Amino acid sequence: MGKAIFITGTGTEIGKTVATSFLAFVFQKLGLNTKIFKPIQTGLAEDGVSFADQYWYEKVVGLAQSEGLYYMEPAVSPHLAATLTNTTIDPALIVEKIEQWKRQYDIVLVEGAGGLAVPLIEKEQEFYMTNDLIKECSIPIIIVSLSGLGAIHHTVTTVSYAQQQGIRVLGLIFNQFNAESIIHVNNIETIKKMLDLPVIATLPSLENVTKHTMMALAERWLANNERKQLLREVLSVEV
To answer: CATH for 3-235, among 3.40.50.1370, 3.30.70.2740, 2.60.40.10, 3.40.50.300?
Structure first.
């Protein structure tokens, strides 16, 4: 039986798809059969035809083992997209898919839409949230954040919310990190002091992303043996 990890973020447009792709290449380099599952996808790619996240995985970085379940054209919150498109989201089906792929793959990376407090289903008196789905799946999370101003507050509050919800946080990934920026460097150092959580990776800003650039990024990260140990300790992955 494989392991499933939910990739969430401190907000939207902070690079969850980039971080998920990076992790997929890391695991593939280690010889682990890896599946990417983004169950709820909203919004189209620049071609106006493909769905943005699926287009990224398949066309931009060439990760064929990626799949969605609910595809909705409006680039809005899932609960609103479902209303606008008359789509019924069934959490039990998402859970079933994850369990199915855990039996077929070593690693299943489940990318969420937005952050933990994003509503997926609107009911009469309440909302079914992303955090509800994670708890129903009984899987841990990795939190993705940007590295610049606001990273401290956004990361600390997201971790606090996850812990209040009883969700296990494995670690953090920071996107668009610039080692020459005193703000970026201090943000990471401060967050490390404030939270007893490992920083799994700091990913640079990427231009003209291709499969080759993502593979090279994963190879450079894996060149450090301490990071392989991190995978063993934090993700309980045998490498």
So the answer is: 3.40.50.300
